[in-house]
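Bump. Still looking for NAD-dependent protein deacylase C-alpha cells.
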Amino acid sequence: MRVVVLTGAGISAESGVPTFRDSDGLWEGHDPMMVATPEAFAADPDLVQRFYDERRAALPRVQPNAAHRALARLEEALGDDLFLVTQNVDDLHERGGSRRVHHMHGRLRAAWCTSCDQRPEWTGSLVDRPGCPGCGSPSLRPDVVWFGEMPHGMDVIEQELWAAELFVSMGTSGAVYPAAGFVHWASANGARTLELNLEPSDGSAHFDQARHGPATELVPAWVDEVLAG
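Sorry for the wait, here they are.
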C-alpha cells in the first residue's frame, strides 16, 4: 500500500514548538508579514535573520514526541511505499528516526545562497552575513519558504499524491494552500483519505474519515493499526 502522510504544526506543538499563528495572530510575538515574506527580508534583513537565528538556536531545546517516533516506525515497515511530506521547518521528524522527509516549506537547519543557489546545511547564525561554503558570497538567507514563494518539490509531491492509495493529514489547519488541496488531489485518484488532528480542520469535511485528539495519541494508535495489517 502506497501511503502519503502530510504533517503540519500540530504534530510538533506537543514537543513545545509554537504553531505558526497563535490565537493572537502572531508567531512568537511577530507579525508573520514582518518576518516571513521576501519584502520583509528586503526591508529589514537583520530583523528577519535574527528571528530565524533564534528559531534555529532553539531547536535543541525541543525533542521529538511519540507521533514523530511512530512515523519513523511506519517508514521502517513500509520503506519507499511511504512518502512523508511536512510543512514544518523543524528537524523533529529526522531526530525521531525518519530518514526520508520532504520539507515542502524548507528547513531551519539549512541556508540558501541566492547567488549560487546552493542550500548548505546550517546550524549557526546568519545575521553577520557569513560567506556561502560554495561560492563565498555573503548571500545566505534562511532556507524557509515565505509567503509568495513556491514550496519545494511540488512536482514530486503531486506525483506521490496521484500514486497514493491512502492519504493521511496530521496536525494541519487545512487553511494554507497548496497543502490544503492535497486531499482533493489524492481523492481524485481514488485514494482513501484520513485526517488526524486535534480538532476538525478547515477541510475536515473533505476526508473520508477524521479522528480528533492529541497527535501523540492518535498517530501511534493509527500506525499500530497499519502495522497490524
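The CA atoms of residues 144 and 213 lie 29 Å apart.

Edit: fixed formatting.
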